[in-house]
Amino acid sequence: MSYRPVIPMGGAAGWAFLQRTQAAQQAAFNASPEIQRDTGYFEKKIDSVQTSDDLIGDRRLLRVALGAYGLGDDINSTYFVKKVLDDGTLDAGDLANKLSDKRYLEFAKDFGFGDYDIPRTQISDFGFRIADAYRQKQFEIAVGEQDANMRLAMTLDHQLSDIVGGSGSDDTKWFKIMGNPPLREVFQTAFGLPSTFGALDIDQQLETFRDKADQYLGGRMVDQFADQDKVDELNRLFLVRSQIASGTASMSSGAIALSLLQAG
Q: pLDDT tens digits, the chain, 264 residues: what are they?
């Protein structure tokens, strides 16, 4: 049986507990027999994969590969996955570049089947890096089974820095956030935006995200999140609003207002 993360409470207090204990809990989770079997098999076998067919033809490898990007639910969509991988990422018309979910773009780019004559599966540390990402994502899933908001908070903490440190304009970075479903949910919840917000014109969504970031965090640029204090402020606001929305926080209207002021 896999290790089950301990989340004794919700909200900001639960997040603080998880942060304090995360290293020890992650280590215990990584030691679970199922995780060791899956990652050990992947690290041993991935260098034999030369094509997308090789990957898709081995369900154990594909499970880890997709799981490393949080895409494990699509393991049965093999035609779609093969199309994403074989198209590559170098042409604007490639499928991965057209998808709103930018996790597929990272997936296709990292494996490189459609971009290079020799795929990146042949790089010496490739197996370790993907297996390590899989361990992290599986731990996040296990955390989410205890508290879904904690999983989203972890996603923010780990994935936002990749976007901040990546290439591209500020527009590009905001679109990457908007195209990453877990990150988008964190930002949308933290900023108090309704579920129907995604139906608006994409440029209008972009300006709204910027305006809300300026309102709550004091800046419109994605690069402000290089400052961990800004990330922490965003996370606290997300957790407070999530707790209020779920009805798990028995708070007076005054307490709710105070929590939002402290978080924002």
A: 578 999 988 888 889 999 999 999 999 999 999 999 999 999 999 999 999 999 999 999 999 999 999 999 999 999 999 999 999 999 999 999 999 888 999 999 999 999 999 999 999 999 999 999 999 999 999 999 999 999 999 988 778 998 998 888 999 999 999 989 999 999 999 999 998 998 899 999 999 999 999 999 999 999 999 999 999 999 999 999 988 877 644 444 444 444 444 444
Residue with tokens 């305006």: 211
Neighbours of 222 (CB within 10 A): 24
Q: Provide CB contacts within 8 A for 34, sequence distance 6+.
A: 2
Which helix (H) or strand (E) is 258 found in, with range?
helix 253-263
Q: What is the C-alpha to C-alpha distance for residues 201 and 142, in angstroms, rounded to an integer?
A: 35
- Taking alpha carbons only, the member of 35, 58, 32 closest to residue 45 is 58
> In angstroms, what CA-CA distances link 73 with 68, 77, 109?
12, 9, 20
Nearest Cα residue to 65 out of 108, 102, 4, 99: 108
Q: How many CB atoms lie within 10 A of CB 134?
A: 23
Query: Is 54 within 8 Å of 82 (Cβ atoms)?
Result: no
Q: Hey, how many other C-beta atoms are within 10 angstroms of the C-beta on 95?
A: 19
- Residue 61 burial (10 A CB sphere; 0-12, 13-18, 19+): buried
Distance, C-alpha 168 to centroid of its chain: 19
